[in-house]
C-alpha cells in the first residue's frame, strides 16, 4: 500500500513541478526577469528543503514517521486554493496526443536500470550477477529503443528538438550530475549523522540547515549576476565550489567536528545554487511556447532520474567497496 501510494504521489508530483516551471518560462520572457524568477524558485525550493528537513525530523521523533507523508495533505489543500485563485491558464495550441508507447518504454527502461543498480549492492549478487547484468543491459537497450521511437514518432514524449540543442542538452546533463551528487550527500550524510554521530531525527534535520541557507542566499545573488556574466562562469565556478565541499565531506570520520561538516555543507550549497539557477534557465531559453511544458518536465525529470540513479548506483558502489565483517 505504501509503495502504491508513493507511486500515485510521484505521478502527480510529475504533473505539478513541470507545470510550475512552464508557467515561469512563458510568463517571464525577458532574460533579467526570468533569471529573477528562477532564483526565487530556487530560493523557495531551498527554503522548503530546510523546513521539510526540520519538520520531518520533528514529526518522526515526536509523533510518527507516517505524519511525514500525511502532512502533505493540508499543504496540498492550501496549494490548490492558491492555485485556483492566482494562476492563469496557459496551454499549447493544436493537437496534443499522448505518446503512450514512449511513456511505457521510458518507465520500463529506467525502472530496470534503477532496480539493476539496487540489487548490485545486495550481498551475494554484485555487478556481475546474471540478474544484475540482465536488468542493466536490458534497461539500457529499452532506452535505446525509446530514443529511436521518439525520433520517428509524430507526437513524441521527448521531442529531440528540445534535447538536442547543445546548450539545453548540456544543461540537462549537468543537472543529472548535480542531482546524483546531491542525492549522495543527503543519503549518506543522513546515515552518518544518525549512525555514526548518534544524532536524533530532529537534530539530523537541523544539521542540514547550513546547506539550505546557503542555497537560499546564493540563489538571490545569482539572479543579479546571471544577466551580467551569463551562465558559463556561474556554472563553472559553482561546480568547482560544490566539488570542493564534496571533497571535504569525503574525508569525514567519527571524530570530525560538526563545524567542518557545516562548512562543507555551505560550500556545496553555494556551489549548487550558483550552478543550478543558470542551468535551469538555460535549459528553457529559446524553447517555443508549445514545447515549454516538455522542456520544463525534462528539467524536473533529469533531476529525479539523477537522484534515483545516484542513490542506487552510489549505494551499490559503497556496498561493493565495503568489506563484509
Helix and strand topology:
Blueprint: H1 2-27, H2 31-62, H3 67-70, H4 72-86, H5 100-120, H6 130-152, H7 160-163, H8 166-196, H9 201-207, H10 209-229, H11 231-249, H12 258-282, H13 292-321
* Category by helix and strand content: mainly alpha
Shape: globular
Strand residue content: under 5%
- The number of helical segments is 13
Name of the level-1 CATH class of the largest domain: Mainly Alpha
For the biggest sheet, the summary is: none
Radius of gyration: 20 Å
Instruction: Look at the structure and give the mean pLDDT.
Output: 81
What is the annotated CATH architecture of the largest domain?
Answer: Up-down Bundle
Helix content: over 70%
* N- to C-terminal distance: 35 Å
Q: Structurally, how many domains make up the residues?
A: 2
- Helix and strand sequence: HHHHHHHHHHHHH
Number of strands: 0
Task: Predict the CATH topology of the largest domain.
Answer: Growth Hormone, Chain: A
Could you state the CATH homologous superfamily of the largest domain?
MFS general substrate transporter like domains
Contiguous uncertain segments of 5+ residues: none
General description of the model:
This protein has 325 residues and is mainly alpha-helical. The chain folds into two domains: 15-88 and 159-319, MFS general substrate transporter like domains (Growth Hormone, Chain: A, Up-down Bundle), CATH 1.20.1250.20; 99-156. It is built from 13 helices and no strands. Helix 2 packs antiparallel against helix 10 and helix 8 (166-196) packs antiparallel against helix 12 (258-282). It is globular. The model has no long low-confidence stretch (mean pLDDT 81).
Amino acid at each position: 500500500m505504501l509503495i502504491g501510494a508513493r507511486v500515485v504521489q510521484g505521478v502527480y508530483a510529475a504533473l505539478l513541478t513541470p507545470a510550475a516551471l512552464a508557467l515561469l518560462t512563458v510568463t517571464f520572457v525577458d532574460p533579467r526577469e526570468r533569471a529573477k524568477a528562477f532564483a526565487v524558485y530556487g530560493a523557495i525550493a531551498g527554503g522548503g528543503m530546510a523546513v521539510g528537513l526540520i519538520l520531518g525530523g520533528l514529526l518522526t521523533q515526536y509523533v510518527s514517521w507516517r505524519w511525514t507523508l500525511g502532512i502533505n495533505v493540508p499543504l496540498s489543500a492550501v496549494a490548490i486554493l492558491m492555485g485556483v485563485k492566482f494562476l492563469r491558464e496557459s496551454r499549447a495550441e493544436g493537437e496534443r496526443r499522448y505518446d503512450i508507447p514512449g511513456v511505457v518504454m521510458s518507465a520500463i527502461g529506467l525502472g530496470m536500470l534503477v532496480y539493476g543498480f539496487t540489487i548490485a549492492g545486495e550481498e551475494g549478487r554484485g555487478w556481475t550477477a546474471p540478474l544484475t547484468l540482465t536488468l542493466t543491459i536490458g534497461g539500457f537497450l529499452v532506452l535505446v529503443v525509446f530514443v529511436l521511437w521518439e525520433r520517428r514518432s509524430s507526437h513524441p514524449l521527448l521531442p529531440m528538438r528540445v534535447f538536442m540543442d547543445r546548450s539545453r542538452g548540456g544543461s540537462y546533463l549537468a543537472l543529472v550530475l548535480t542531482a546524483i551528487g546531491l542525492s549522495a550527500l543527503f543519503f549518506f550524510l543522513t546515515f552518518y549523522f544518525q549512525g555514526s554521530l548518534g544524532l536524533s531525527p530532529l537534530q539530523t534535520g537541523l544539521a542540514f540547515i547550513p546547506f539550505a541557507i546557503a542555497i537560499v542566499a546564493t540563489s538571490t545573488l545569482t539572479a543579479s549576476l546571471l544577466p551580467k556574466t551569463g551562465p558559463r562562469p556561474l556554472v563553472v565556478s559553482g561546480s568547482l565550489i560544490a566539488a570542493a565541499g564534496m571533497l571535504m565531506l569525503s574525508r569525514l570520520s567519527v571524530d570530525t567536528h560538526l563545524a567542518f561538516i557545516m562548512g562543507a555543507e555551505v560550500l556545496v550549497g553555494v556551489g549548487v545554487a550558483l550552478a543550478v539557477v543558470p542551468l535551469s534557465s538555460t535549459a528553457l531559453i529559446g524553447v517555443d511556447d508549445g514545447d515549454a511544458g516538455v522542456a520544463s518536465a525534462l528539467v524536473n525529470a533529469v533531476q529525479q532520474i539523477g537522484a534515483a540513479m545516484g542513490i542506487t548506483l552510489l549505494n551499490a558502489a559503497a556496498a561493493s567497496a565495503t568489506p563484509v565483517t
